[in-house]
Amino acid sequence: MKGGDHVQIQIDPVSAAPIYQQIRDRVVEAVAAGDLTPGDQLASVRQLAVDFGINVATVAKAYDVLRNEGIIRTNHKSGSVIARGPGTAPADDAFVADWSARLATLLAEAVAQGLTDAAIIERSTAIVDDFSARRSTSDTAKDSPS
Q1: Per its record, what are the GO molecular function terms (predicted)?
Q2: Looking at the domain that runs over 1-88, which CATH code has it been given?
Q3: Which of 18, 63, 99, 124 is the most buried (most CB within 10 A)?
Q4: Where in the chain are the domains?
Q5: Residue 51 CB neighbour total at 10 angstroms
């Protein structure tokens, strides 16, 4: 998915989540894990569509969402690159408000499904810790000579 070191993402064609959303989610997860960092090149819309055997419009929609979220920027000459990630400027207030609302819904789903507060906190902490550990591993790999 990026030049040379291709970050592999997986999509599930039978998932209830739309494919464009899966692409968006996998890119965001790769950024959070440090697998994609600011300046990293993404595959072109056409190339990703060919790679997945899906419509170009589906990939374009995923990239549009990522661009609207400020995760990527696109230039007609250089294509799409990662624009934000851990260590970049803090998120703006509008993002935090929207994210908080979405988080509240996710947490409500967990509560409605019978998860305890402790289980929700434990799982949330494990996910954040995993992203942090993966970033540390990714940073170490990028710093070591090839």
Answers
A1: DNA binding; DNA-binding transcription factor activity
A2: 1.10.10.10
A3: 63
A4: 1-88, 90-146
A5: 15
Tell me the whole-structure pTM to 2 decimals: 0.84
**HSE (side-chain half, CA atoms, 13 Å) at 112:** 6
Task: Name the strand (E) or helix (H) holding 61.
Answer: helix 56-68
The rounded distance, in Å, linking the Cα atoms of 27 and 72 is: 10
Look at the alpha carbons of 65, 70, 76, 77 in this order and tell me if their dihedral is positive or negative.
Answer: negative
**pLDDT above 60 for 2:** no
Beta bridge partners of 74: 80
Q: Do 7 and 1 contact (CB within 8 A), yes or no?
A: yes
Residue 23 tokens, joined: 């692409």
